[in-house]
Design goal:
It is a single chain. By secondary structure, the chain is an alpha/beta fold. It is 49% helix and 12% strand. It has a five-stranded mixed sheet with strand order 2-1-3-13-6. Strand 1, helix 3 and strand 2 form a beta-alpha-beta unit.
Length: 483
């Protein structure tokens, strides 16, 4: 309002000045006329000036002046309002966790290229962080005030990072209508304490991947799994397995959780959220089953890790593995005739081996400027968009978090996706509470201590129980330190 009053005042002052100028001009005309009346030349006839003609002249001049002034003002105003200012350049530092040479990295790079073409003023400083080190490095950088602006995380890091104050909530940008484009389970993965802290790029989980040339039909039960595995396992003269029935990283808690659930256990006590329940008879039974596959049935190599698993499978020397969709592009490159199916039901309990159903996604670091936070949200919204997720499906075989893509032909006509979606209905919720971060190291240590790496040195039931006792005590100690 003040601006409008000022403009009107300015126009009034402009009209007064014009009036003065015109009055002076009129006086000059009258003076000339008086001179003409005094001195009459032979011709032309005398000029007669009337009051009416003077008023008409002044009025016409004033109208022309005012119209010109208003027209100029309007044109200037319209031109100013329609010219958009050039956005100020902003730089984002982004940490991703895609493995070098993977289909996921290829899809990410393609999506980033499209983003930069759309937002040329957002300059991206992209850095790769190994997945296992990303969280600790982010915490260290955050404590030092040097955190990246954007970080790709596993969803179960959410609660811990929120509790430490290292990530920013998304409510100013991601309202209910925006979040409705994602699957509800994918939205929930990044919700904690009633707020949303990240956007899911995918949903992912483990399932059974099998070599169709060795295993034409995947097993429905663990009894069938043992029988099939025994029929295809081969050893050399020293007894070393050269072709495995089934292999996975046997001391990895992420993999073990599916067996724990299948034998009737869980990571946390359902009646006491956040209280560990890994020291249970179900955990003992699950560990004993895995030990039997290694030492009793001798169908799983002792001491197998991720590298051993993928080397055997990609060289056609493993009938079955347990892994996620992120590895399918490499399996295809290896030329393996493979299939994907849900893991079998545990014959002893009638429950399915139920891996944790989670996701990977993107969060924004807290404490950033409004300009950086705004650009960061544009980036994570882009990289988790339907178009971007299609790239990941095409190049890496990932499962979408986007609701519409679940029924898209790119998924419905894809047998790999169908296999993983079948497993998704037989999975277990993946906790994202801060206490989850306290589970991994103690349980990895318990599994290393209780699952045989040498079939001549089998842990006793008492040693298995002792390892689980220690794991639970260590988890409780770590949870206590969170407070």
């Amino acid at each position: 309002m003040k601006k409008d009053l000022k403009a009107k005042s300015s126009r009034r002052r402009g009209v007064t000045t014009t009036q003065v100028a015109i009055a002076i001009a009129v006086i000059a005309v009258i003076a000339a006329v008086v001179f003409a009346v005094t001195y009459t030349p032979p011709s032309p006839a005398p000029v007669t000036i009337t009051q009416t003609s003077v008023q008409t002249s002044v009025k016409t001049s004033l109208q022309t002046s005012v119209q010109t002034s208003v027209q100029t003002s309007v044109v200037t105003s319209v031109q100013t309002s329609t010219v958009k200012p050039t956005p100020t350049p902003v730089t984002l530092t982004i940490w991703h966790t895609y493995a070098p040479g993977s289909g996921e990295l290829e899809a990410f790079n393609a999506s980033v290229t499209a983003f930069q073409a759309t937002y040329p003023y957002i300059i991206l400083n992209i850095q790769m962080k190994p997945f296992d080190a990303a969280r600790a490095d982010f915490v260290t950088a955050s404590l030092a005030g040097k955190a990246p602006d954007v970080l790709r995380i596993a969803h179960d890091w959410t609660g811990s990072l929120v509790a430490q104050g290292f990530v920013a909530p998304l409510e100013p940008y991601a309202d209910a209508a925006f979040l409705d484009r994602y699957l509800p389970v994918a939205v929930q993965d990044y919700q904690f304490s009633g707020r949303t802290w990240g956007l899911a790029e995918n949903i992912n989980h483990l399932a059974l991947i099998y070599n169709k040339d060795l295993v034409p039909t995947p097993p429905a039960t663990t009894d069938e799994l043992i029988k099939i595995s025994q029929g295809i396992t081969q050893k050399d003269a020293t007894g070393k397995i050269t072709q495995a029935g089934i292999v996975w990283p046997t001391t990895g808690t992420y993999w073990f959780s599916g067996f724990l659930n299948g034998f009737g256990g869980s990571i946390f006590d359902p009646a006491r959220p956040g209280y560990p329940a890994v020291n249970s008879s179900a955990a003992v039974d699950a560990i004993q089953f895995i030990s039997d596959l290694i030492a009793k049935y001798e169908v799983t190599p002792p001491g197998a890790d991720y590298g051993v698993m993928m080397n055997l499978f990609n060289t056609g020397k493993a009938g079955m593995i347990i892994n996620g969709p992120w590895e399918l592009s490499n399996i295809k490159k290896a030329g393996i005739n493979y299939g994907v199916a849900a893991l079998p039901t545990v014959s002893k309990t009638g429950k399915p081996i139920a891996p944790l159903i989670g996701s990977q996604g993107w969060v924004i670091a807290s404490g950033k400027s409004p300009e950086v936070t705004d650009a960061a949200f544009k980036f994570i919204a882009w990289i988790t968009s339907e178009a971007s997720q299609k790239l990941f499906i095409e190049k890496a075989g990932t499962l979408p978090s986007n609701k519409d893509l679940v029924t898209d032909p790119i998924i419905t006509s894809n047998p790999d996706a169908a296999g993983y979606l079948a497993q998704a209905f037989k999975g277990a919720p993946f906790p994202n509470i801060p206490e989850m971060g306290a589970v991994w190291s103690p349980m990895d240590a318990a599994l290393t201590a209780s699952i045989p790496t040498d079939i001549t040195k089998l842990p006793t039931p008492a040693e298995i129980q002792a390892a689980l006792n220690k794991a639970e005590a260590d988890i409780l100690r770590a949870i206590g330190s969170l407070g």
